Amino acid sequence: MTAPVTLVQGDITAQRADAIVNAANSSLLGGGGVDGAIHRRGGPDILADCRRLRAQHHGKGLPTGRAVATTAGRLDAHHVIHTVGPVWSATEDRSELLASCHRESLRVAAELGARTVAFPAISTGVYRWPLEDAARIAVATVREAADPERFDEVRFVLLGQDAYAAFEAAL
Ligand code: AR6
């Protein structure tokens, strides 16, 4: 049994959820894509929390495949869970790291008691992971890891039609 997995086409920063996952980088200090959008719309409290986490626990940066939580600032959510996806490689299989992002984000969400979690298509933008493959890994991992006792909904929020179609096919 797995928690319900749903798909929405749209902007992840406009979602209402207990936790919203950010496709961050290991610096935790912001960037483009989802990361830029979350910090812009969520406001400065998110970055302040990120800086604190960096100073206290992740001086060398958050490793790829791991996840940490901060406030969601002004977003319509309680928490932002920042995870670091792997950069796509044509020569090295980094699928396990992409799976780990999803598993670790759900583990952190469960610790926080977050029952609805929204994910973007991690690593499919700046990090260039092919959509169909990323969708397959994301959906399979969430199906395996989302305990229905702990989660009411795991939602993938896809910005474009191509991303939506890839996740729909994977689901
Ligand atoms: N809502 C939903 N999906 C979005 C949004 C949005 N507002 N904006 C972009 N996407 P990316 P990555 C889609 O680049 O590949 C940052 O600079 C986008 O079309 O955000 O994991 C970080 O700081 C794509 O399908 O994340 C890192 O340095 C997907 O979200 C780096 O990018 C992920 O694209 C992480 O790269």
From TrEMBL:
Q: Please give the organism.
A: Streptomyces venezuelae
Record CDD domains:
Macro_OAADPr_deacetylase
Q: Which NCBIfam families match?
A: PRK00431.1-6
> Which SUPFAM superfamilies does the record associate with it?
Macro domain-like
Under InterPro entries, the record lists: Macro_dom, Macro_dom-like
Record domain Macro: where: 1-171
Q: What is this protein called?
A: O-acetyl-ADP-ribose deacetylase
The record ties this protein, via Gene3D superfamilies, to: Leucine Aminopeptidase, subunit E, domain 1
